[in-house]
Structure of Alpha/beta hydrolase fold:
Amino acid sequence: MGIGSQVTAPPPGPALAEHPAIPLLDYDRVAGTVENGSAPGSMLLVHGFGGGKQQLRELGDALCPAGSEAFYPVLRAHGTSPKPAWGYSVLDFAADVHRIADVLPERVDAVGYSYGALVSAVSAVTWGAARIRSLVVIDQSFEAHPERHEADEWVEGSLLRWHYDFSHLLDVLHGLGVPVLVLGSPDSGVIGTDEEERLLARRDALFDYRRITGSHAECYRDTEVLVPLMDEFYRTKVAGT
């Protein structure tokens, strides 16, 4: 080995990986490359149900600054992550992310799309502002909608999601001092008119709601629209927190 040569050790994995009886989520960690990236630092980006770790990759690549990292966990029952026979409450999904949280930097800015936004919100409430600096929600309702419940192969997760109201999570995050941006598309129908009015009424120094466009399956792809909205949020509500 020549003078000045360096051996770069791989980044450490989760501490629980030393216990093979505990199944852990698959995840990617990607170095940020954006000079003067609009995110304040490292990011945690959580995909929606039926998605994967590539779902928010374009968004993360556009926002994560050089010197930071973007983390993309793969939710249970997706990709190569564990698929238990039961355990599909949002609390189970959030606990999975918690089990690998020691690979994250001390503070991250969380971004969640669809069901991943609910998982991210529960994680932020659990970990607090010392670990989650901010949360961006992309097209996810926090209110109960029993009519959306489907008794299919995901009956447990569907029932535990749609029969329960999670809007109090936004109250808790506000109390913790975690800035939140909700991006909702009227085209998707996920956030109804009444809920949108309630979200607009929450707007203050720590909370904002902005409209985006496109179907639920497509709205997260519009990076040209999302990035400026998130950049403004990071500059006006997150900077200095």
